[in-house]
Design a protein that fits this description.
This protein has two domains: 237 residues, no CATH class; 111 residues, abc type-2 transporter like fold. 66% of the residues lie in helices and 6% in strands. The chain has 14 helices and four strands. The chain has a four-stranded mixed β-sheet, with helices on both faces. Helix 7 packs antiparallel against helix 11 and helix 10 packs parallel to helix 14. The protein is elongated, with a radius of gyration of 28 Å. The relative contact order is 0.11.
Length: 373
């Protein structure tokens, strides 16, 4: 590493240290994102506000209500006096589900007939609705087996038939934090490197100091590398910060190799740094650079597999997602942290990053050099 490049890197570190507020933001943003996504963005649906209209008022109906209450999915908030009251509460959003037990429910059970129970679910949020739908069926089936077993005096589960025993690997408790925390690492790497790389170069242009750098013996690639190296160091520090907090606070396991994770993250940084350089070559102000940087992040968030599964997207969106580098990094991070797999499992992802990263960096560097001339 030559002295000119070291001087640029040293200058950039000094500039960062002279702006403690920006430096604090760089270290605080990952923590804020981690806690927001770790707690707020979750698919673990529990304690749905539920109202019950019990028109039967028998011990059997009360047992059913208690079964729903004990399931941990439904929080019985109140008892309604009519079906219309449930409809009003669902319309207002005060409740998410309503259980209607008709008159004669207990008599039907005593006669061995089928006793029907209605569960009304607010479907405005499909994620909540699908969870409530599955939970309502599961609780009902369990209660039905219990009633039949008591009536016959025989454990009906031992009468033969098919028994399904599902096993969940890698995340047995199906915790959302185990899915979201690794994804935060990818978002942080892209956010910090893209945004702050673009801002630092545009800031030089706004202050008129970039022209002074251009007329010096410093080569264009030395200027680029010297500007981005400090932010790479900060990005890796934030990566380790998230790993520590995710492990000790959220209990997310790290089953694979951390050095492998850091090494493969470098391939992704080529792409994110390239996007930052491209933004810096287009933008003429820091505000414009900030907006453009956020614009480049939108495809990563929505079609990169960060929040939504790629398999659920239309085919044309899945095709576009192959151009999003974050798609491949998230597979690598989740595979290393949750599955503990090695390099051999990421052949396709590494190949894609080896193509996209240098391509984006090369194109952005040419565009950046042209903007300096």
């Amino acid at each position: 590493m030559n002295s000119r490049l070291l001087s640029i890197i040293r200058k950039e570190f000094i500039h960062i240290l002279r702006d403690p507020r920006t430096l604090a933001i760089m270290f605080i943003i990952p923590i804020v994102e981690l806690f927001l996504l770790g707690y707020a963005v979750t698919t673990d649906i529990r304690h749905l506000n539920t109202v019950v209209f019990d028109a039967d008022r028998t011990p059997q109906s009360r047992q059913l209500v208690e079964a729903y209450r004990a399931s941990d999915y439904f929080a019985i908030a109140r008892y309604a006096q009519s079906e219309d009251e449930i409809a009003v509460l669902l319309d207002s959003g005060a409740i998410r589900a309503g259980i209607i037990i008709p008159a004669g429910y207990g008599d039907n059970l005593a006669r061995g007939a089928v006793a029907q129970v209605a569960v009304l679910i607010d479907g405005s949020d499909p994620t909540v609705a699908s969870t409530a739908f599955a939970a309502s069926q599961s609780v009902g089936q369990a209660q039905s087996i219990k009633i039949v077993t008591q009536r016959l005096g025989v454990d009906v589960t031992r009468l033969g038939g098919i028994e399904i025993r599902p096993r969940v690997w890698y995340n047995p408790e199906l915790r959302s934090a185990n899915y979201m925390v690794p994804a935060v690492i990818g978002i942080i790497l892209q956010f910090l490197t893209t945004l702050f790389t673009a801002l630092t170069i545009v800031r030089e242009r706004e202050q008129g100091t970039i022209e002074q750098l251009v007329v010096t013996p410093i080569k264009s690639w030395e200027l680029v590398v010297g500007k981005v190296v400090p932010y790479i160091a900060i990005a890796f520090f934030d990566l380790l910060e998230v790993l520590v907090l995710g492990t000790f606070w959220f209990g997310v396991p790290i089953r694979g190799s951390i050095p492998l994770l850091l090494g493969l993250s470098v391939l992704f940084l080529l792409a994110s740094l390239g996007m930052g350089l491209f933004v810096s070559s287009v933008a003429r102000s820091q505000l414009e650079a900030m907006f453009l940087a956020f614009l480049t992040m939108l495809p990563s968030i929505f079609i990169g597999g960060f929040l939504f599964p790629l398999e659920a997207m239309p085919g044309w969106l899945q095709a576009i997602s192959y151009l999003v580098p974050l798609r491949y990094l998230l597979v690598i991070i989740r595979g290393i942290m949750l599955k503990g797999v090695g390099l051999g499992a990421f052949g396709d992802q590494v190949l894609a990053l080896l193509i996209l990263g240098p391509f984006i960096m090369f194109g952005a560097s040419r565009r950046f050099r042209k903007s300096l001339e």
